């Protein structure tokens, strides 16, 4: 990892502590540290912590790992029993000792290992911290969007979707709504992105350990920058805005009046760009640098993500389109700080991705009404932006000839 990537991952635990302090000083009613409680009811955090620990664990660490896991889980059980609590009261934190054990192993290696290995062990510790703490910060950040954003642009996003690819988004939502099997498949795909990420991290830790940190840096950056963009053109998604109360028989996109929508619920404002799609694209871009089969896995996962997000009506199609230039820019940004990386193509990707993402935001906000009379132009613009974004992606880092990177674990 370069210095920028290391700084981003260091900012995750530091931001976790800083956010807790700010939340308490501001008198907010929810705090990030609450998720670390043994009585926490956030199984998503527990799952992310466990899969992160297991995907980064090395064979030589297993003996100490099992000792640490036993100690942490036994301590938690004793605390619960001392408080006369039922052990099942904390079912959502069962196994969290695996994460604490993995962090303890990193601290052990950094403090007692050979000096030549300490920086590498420190980087691995940052990878182990990044995803679970990032989940906590994401939950907290999304809660803030619900607290502080009252009006959304769902009418604009919904109307623009009605211009794209023969109402593709509405068709997929309708199919999944009518078929329990398709809905279940879409739900499984939508919830699997943590698991797919862990598989990529597992493979990278065994072939190119430094690349695992690079992937987690981009994953973290996407979440942070995407969160700020949610304040620019906020939306709660078609399911909550249009389908929740009427199924897929909501008003036609062509009939929606283009004005902001007042939202009083606590639904997160997380429409554009779609981070689910951006994260899937980052995995495909990482796979491009690993091996053909990993690139194929990433591409298939991107296709499944499109199906899942639209089928469940969690996102608008334009959210997914905006994720393409956004992901290209995020993927290229840390490479600006690589000394051995050609600077020109990376800089073009960053600048081009930023400009194309901003252009889409402006088009949806200010050009949806005129495009209603020229749907073909909306299609052409969206497809053109996707193709231009992919053309900007630097390809010089592909290393498909490396046998070590080509093998599936």
In sequence order, what are the helices and strands, one letter per element?
HHHHHEHHHHHHEHHHHHHH
Q: Helix share of residues?
A: 55-70%
Contiguous runs where pLDDT drops below 50 for at least 5 residues: 401-409
The radius of gyration computed from the alpha-carbon positions, rounded to a whole number of angstroms, is 22 Å
The secondary structure category is: mainly alpha
**Which word captures the global form?**
globular
What percent of residues are in strands?
under 5%
Major sheet, described briefly?
A: 2 strands, antiparallel
Distance between the termini: 22 Å
What's the overall average pLDDT, rounded?
89
How many helices? The count is: 18
The total beta strand count reads: 2
Sum this structure up briefly.
The chain has 409 residues and is mainly alpha-helical. It contains 18 helices and 2 strands.
How does this model look, in words?
With 409 residues, this protein is mostly helical. The protein has 2 domains: 1-148, no CATH class; 151-409, no CATH class. Helix content is 69%, strand content 1%. The chain is built from 18 helices and 2 strands. It has helices at 3-25, 43-56, 62-82, 97-112, 115-148, 154-161, 168-178, 180-191, 193-207, 209-229, 238-243, 275-288, 292-311, 317-332, 343-366, 368-371, 375-392, 403-406, and strands at residues 151-152, 261-262. It has a two-stranded antiparallel ribbon. The longest helix has 34 residues, at 115-148. The protein starts with a helix and ends with a helix. The model is unreliable at 401-409 (pLDDT under 50).
């Amino acid at each position: 990892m370069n210095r920028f990537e290391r700084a981003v991952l260091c900012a995750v635990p530091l931001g976790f502590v800083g956010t807790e302090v700010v939340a308490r000083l501001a008198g907010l009613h929810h705090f990030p540290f609450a998720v670390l409680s043994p009585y926490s009811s956030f199984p998503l955090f527990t799952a992310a912590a466990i899969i992160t620990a297991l995907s980064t664990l090395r064979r030589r660490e297993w003996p100490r790992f099992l000792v640490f896991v036993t100690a942490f889980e036994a301590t938690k059980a004793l605390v619960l029993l001392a408080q006369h609590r039922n052990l099942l009261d904390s079912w959502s934190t069962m196994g969290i000792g695996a994460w604490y054990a993995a962090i303890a192993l990193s601290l052990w290696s950094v403090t007692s290992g050979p000096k030549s290995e300490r920086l590498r062990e420190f980087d691995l510790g940052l990878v182990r911290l990044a995803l679970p703490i990032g989940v906590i910060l994401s939950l907290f950040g999304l809660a803030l969007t619900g607290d502080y954003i009252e009006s959304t642009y769902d009418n604009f996003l919904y109307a623009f979707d009605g211009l794209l690819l023969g109402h593709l988004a509405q068709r997929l939502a309708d199919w999944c709504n009518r078929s329990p099997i398709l809905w279940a498949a879409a739900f499984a795909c939508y919830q699997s992105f943590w698991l797919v990420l862990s598989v990529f991290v597992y493979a990278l830790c065994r072939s190119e350990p430094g690349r695992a940190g690079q992937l987690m840096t981009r994953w973290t950056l996407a979440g942070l920058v995407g969160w700020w963009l949610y304040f620019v053109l906020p939306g709660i998604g078609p399911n909550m805005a249009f389908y929740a109360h009427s199924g897929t028989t909501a008003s036609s996109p062509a009939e929606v009046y283009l004005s902001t929508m007042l939202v009083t619920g606590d639904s997160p404002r997380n429409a554009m760009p779609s981070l689910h799609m951006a994260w899937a694209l980052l995995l495909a871009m990482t796979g491009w640098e690993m091996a053909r089969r990993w690139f194929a896995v990433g591409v298939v996962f991107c296709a499944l993500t499109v199906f899942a997000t639209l089928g469940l009506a969690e996102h608008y199609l334009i959210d997914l389109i905006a994720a393409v230039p956004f992901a290209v820019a995020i993927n290229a940004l840390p490479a600006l700080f690589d000394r051995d990386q050609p600077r020109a193509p990376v800089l073009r990707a960053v600048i081009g991705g930023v400009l194309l993402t901003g252009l889409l935001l402006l088009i949806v906000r200010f050009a949806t009404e005129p495009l209603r009379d020229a749907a073909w132009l909306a299609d052409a613009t969206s497809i053109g932006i996707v193709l231009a974004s992919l053309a900007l992606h630097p390809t010089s880092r592909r290393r498909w000839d490396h046998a070590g990177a080509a093998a599936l674990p």
